[in-house]
Amino acid sequence: MNILITNDDGVNAPGLLALSEHMGKLGNVYVLAPDKNWSASGHVKTMHRPLRVRETTLANGFPVLTTDGAPSDCVALALLGLIPVQLDLLVSGINPTANVGFDVTYSGTVTAAMEAVIWGIPGMAVSLDSPGNHADTLDYSQAAQAAVQVAEFIGANGLMKGILLNVNVPYRPDGEIRGVKTTRQGLRVYRHSLVERADPRGRPYYWIGGDPPTGIPENGTDIGALTEGYISVTPLQLDLTAYRSMDSLRDMTLDHR
């Protein structure tokens, strides 16, 4: 299996290092990742400037490629031929915080997997549900092991066309993860606030701030599974059509005058 790895935290992120080391158990690993942090960047595609790519190495000496483009640019560049092999799977991560609920629309981690699906190869995003006040170095090993097992499942069973998997792993001591659940998206609760300040010349500027988001731990959802200590695997689709609403719109008429 030829596996492409990327992320949205940058090529030097420890989650990327852990993922690349563990995925080597399944086949050939190729890394093409951003040269800076693109967290909460969403599904970005760079169209109006050239993209630069250079060779570098991870902390363990593994040779990789990095670019000044976004996570989805990394996937596109690789699949357009920058990685000169037939790629079988894209794995994005490991993100240091969970990507659940509506987060998937913001997440560069998840949208990199979306880009892979657009190009016709299976994609999965992997995130670690670490506590917000965690002061020590994060341990990505359990999330990486979970990613390997999900990747093995994809390799053996495939994925339906247009589907990607969003994998979130609880941050628990070794042996305390209770298992895995297939879930739906939960309801993320955001508490954003607008912070207005003035620069040295008196001109206003703004931050979108607020407390970290929380979620409703409803049974059957990604948030609920993480709360209970389970790995959450949520199948996502790129078709955003609200089919249940189509009938209510069929009688719409517009005045073309």
What report would you give on this structure?
With 257 residues, this protein is α/β, with parallel strands linked by helices. The protein is built from 7 helices and 11 strands. A 9-stranded mixed β-sheet has the order 3-4-2-1-5-6-7-11-8, with helices on both faces. Strands 9-10 form a two-stranded antiparallel sheet. α5 links the parallel β6 and β7. The longest helix has 17 residues.
Write the layout of secondary structure elements.
Blueprint: E1 2-6, H1 14-23, E2 28-34, E3 53-57, E4 63-67, H2 71-82, E5 89-95, H3 103-106, H4 108-118, E6 123-129, H5 141-157, E7 163-170, E8 179-182, E9 187-198, E10 204-216, H6 222-227, E11 230-237, H7 246-249
Parallel strand pairs: 1-2, 1-5, 2-4, 5-6, 6-7, 8-11
Antiparallel strand pairs: 3-4, 7-11, 9-10
Helix pairs in contact: 1-5, 2-4
Give a nutshell description of this structure.
With 257 residues, the protein is of the alpha/beta class. It is built from seven helices and eleven strands.
